[in-house]
């Protein structure tokens, strides 16, 4: 809980800090990577730095955390903390690194605020930082404790590589040593480290899809502008060994009996396939509506497996939207307003795809009567949404 001494200081300064974050973050990262270039080797994504998504997410989350503490003094924003802790754990982040971020973030804040960074202001924000850091460190320790091994990454051999849609390849790995394998929950992801052109390691997350017992399987869309996926598609071959983390991620199916809406666009099918496979294995009787949007049938990753799984579930149906005329049930972008969705207060929805797709769909689902709190999503990059959209708490 925030101390009585810091509370009024945070109340007075949260506006200015939130407003200055876009200016503070580039300086924070510049100074941190100057002092610790090794953090760009295996820990931070260079591309997320360049495209600006990660810097805003990290610093922005501290302001969002402070705002939560002001409005709800007796609780923490559990959803935000859990997502970040899972991501951190998938990268093997250790508590020793928290003073590094503190030093460089606070150096940048002091430089930006100048005289306004009085000792009281710095002390109050210091308190917020360490409350958040301590909460994350505790969650991350708990996550590491749940693993079947005590390593952050283990070697895996690529045993098969299969084209499954236009620009999309499925990679199946088996352990290359005897590190015990943690059982994954459908919907979870792993971090894969890849050595890039200049020799440094770049980590990326990929959702686990159903595989043979004891294997890890991922389905990867090539981003032609990306740093890692072109290497995976073109230069990594059967027999090659890559370092892969334990499974993490908290976007997993609930244990309830209510109906489900599982919606994806493009490569966002990967968690949906994992969910459908779990439901099929459990012999689920739940009512499931699968929604998918894509450019065309040929670009739809996992089309065959989704069709098969939907067929095997007694109460599942699928509706598709394809930009290519004649390829889907509907033409163009997904619009659930045009279909008859049988949903109620117990319906849970999961979605995965580009942010504009998920924002639009969320509003449409709420319009149809799905409670906002039951709508969950996975985002394939640093989450800019959770932190800024209070509407999600509807
Ligand atoms: P990156 O190098 O990360 O580049 C991404 C984008 O950044 C580029 O398109 C470009 O627009 C921009 N960029 C790069 N460099 C610059 C620059 N210099 N200036 C400006 N912009 C730049 N992907 C899958 O295919 N399958 C999955 O199952 C999957 N699951 C995921 C699960 C989670 C939880 C997360 C977080 C991500 C998942 N992803 C998945 C996405 C994946 O991790 C990668 O982000 C994605 O594949 C792109 O990787 P890349 O290295 O090729 O591209
Ligand atoms: C990711 C917050 C400390 C390394 C993130 C994200 C947030 C965040 C919000 C984005 C999560 C997502 O949606 O994917 C914080 C906060 C910290 C903290 C509030 C301190 C209180 C650290 C430290 C390190 C670190 C100490 C390592 C030095 C990373 C990395 C990522 C990340 C590597 C993923 C980056 C990427 O994919 O580009 N953090 N973090 N974080 N964090 Fe932290």
Structure description:
The chain has 10 helices and 12 strands. It has helices at residues 6-35, 46-50, 53-71, 78-90, 98-113, 119-145, 229-234, 269-281, 303-312, 355-368, and strands at 153-165, 168-175, 189-195, 201-209, 216-221, 241-245, 260-265, 288-294, 316-322, 330-331, 348-352, 375-378. Helix 1 (6-35) runs antiparallel to helix 3 and helix 4 (78-90) crosses helix 6 (119-145). The longest helix is centred in the first third of the chain and has 30 residues, at 6-35. The two termini are 25 Å apart. Bound molecules: flavin-adenine dinucleotide and protoporphyrin IX containing FE. Residues 45, 47, 50-51, 189, 204-207, 218-221, 223, 225-229, 249, 267, 270, 378, 380-381 line the site of flavin-adenine dinucleotide.
Supply the key terms:
394 residues; alpha/beta; 6-stranded antiparallel β-barrel; 6-stranded parallel sheet; 10 helices; 12 strands; 20% strand; globular; disordered C terminus; binds flavin-adenine dinucleotide; binds protoporphyrin IX containing FE
Give a short overview.
With about 400 residues, the protein is of the alpha/beta class. The protein has ten helices and twelve strands.
Through-space gap between termini: 25 Å
Strand order of the largest sheet: 1-2-5-4-3-6
Q: Roughly what fraction of the amino acids lie in strands?
A: 15-25%
> How large is the radius of gyration?
22 Å
Query: What gross morphology would you assign?
Result: globular
The count of β-strands is 12
Helix content, binned percent = 25-40%
Report mean pLDDT, rounded to a whole number. 94
Helix-strand makeup class: alpha/beta
**Uncertain residue segments:** 389-394
The topology string of helices and strands comes to: HHHHHHEEEEEHEEHEHEEEHE
- Count of alpha and pi helical runs: 10
Bound molecules: flavin-adenine dinucleotide, protoporphyrin IX containing FE
What composes the largest sheet? 6 strands, antiparallel, barrel
């Amino acid at each position: 809980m925030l101390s009585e001494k810091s509370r009024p200081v945070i109340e007075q300064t949260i506006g200015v800090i939130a407003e200055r974050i876009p200016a503070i973050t580039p300086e924070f990262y510049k100074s941190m990577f100057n002092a610790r270039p090794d953090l760009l080797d295996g820990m931070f994504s260079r591309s997320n730095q360049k495209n600006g998504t990660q810097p805003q997410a990290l610093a922005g989350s501290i302001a969002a955390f402070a705002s939560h503490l002001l409005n709800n003094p007796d609780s923490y924003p559990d959803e935000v903390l859990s997502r970040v802790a899972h991501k951190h754990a998938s990268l093997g982040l250790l508590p020793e690194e928290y003073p590094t971020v503190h030093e460089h973030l606070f150096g940048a804040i002091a430089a930006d605020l100048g005289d306004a960074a009085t000792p009281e202001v710095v002390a109050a924000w210091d308190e917020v930082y360490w409350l958040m850091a301590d909460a994350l460190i505790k969650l991350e320790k708990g996550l590491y404790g749940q693993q079947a091994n005590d390593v952050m990454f283990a070697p895996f051999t690529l045993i098969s590589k299969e084209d499954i849609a236009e620009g999309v390849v499925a990679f199946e790995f088996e352990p290359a040593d005897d590190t015990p394998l943690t059982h994954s929950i459908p919907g979870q992801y792993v971090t894969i480290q890849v050595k890039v052109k200049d020799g440094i390691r770049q980590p990326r997350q990929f959702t686990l899809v159903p595989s043979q017992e004891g294997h890890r399987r991922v389905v990867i869309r090539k981003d032609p502008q990306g740093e890692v996926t072109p290497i995976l598609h073109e230069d990594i071959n059967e027999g090659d060994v890559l370092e892969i983390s334990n499974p993490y991620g908290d976007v997993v199916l609930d244990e309830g009996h209510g109906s489900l809406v599982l919606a994806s666009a493009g490569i966002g099918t990967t968690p949906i396939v994992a969910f459908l496979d779990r439901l099929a294995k459990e012999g689920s009787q739940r009512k499931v509506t699968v929604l998918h949007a894509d450019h065309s049938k040929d670009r739809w990753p996992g089309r065959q497996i989704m069709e098969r799984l939907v067929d095997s579930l007694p109460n599942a149906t699928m509706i598709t939207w394809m930009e290519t005329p004649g390829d889907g049930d509907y033409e163009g972008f997904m619009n659930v307003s045009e279909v008859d969705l049988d949903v109620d207060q117990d319906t849970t929805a999961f979605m995965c795809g580009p942010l504009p797709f998920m924002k639009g769909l969320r509003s449409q689902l709420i319009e149809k009567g799905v409670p906002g709190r039951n709508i969950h999503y996975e985002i394939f990059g640093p989450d800019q949404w959770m932190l800024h959209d209070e509407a999600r708490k509807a």
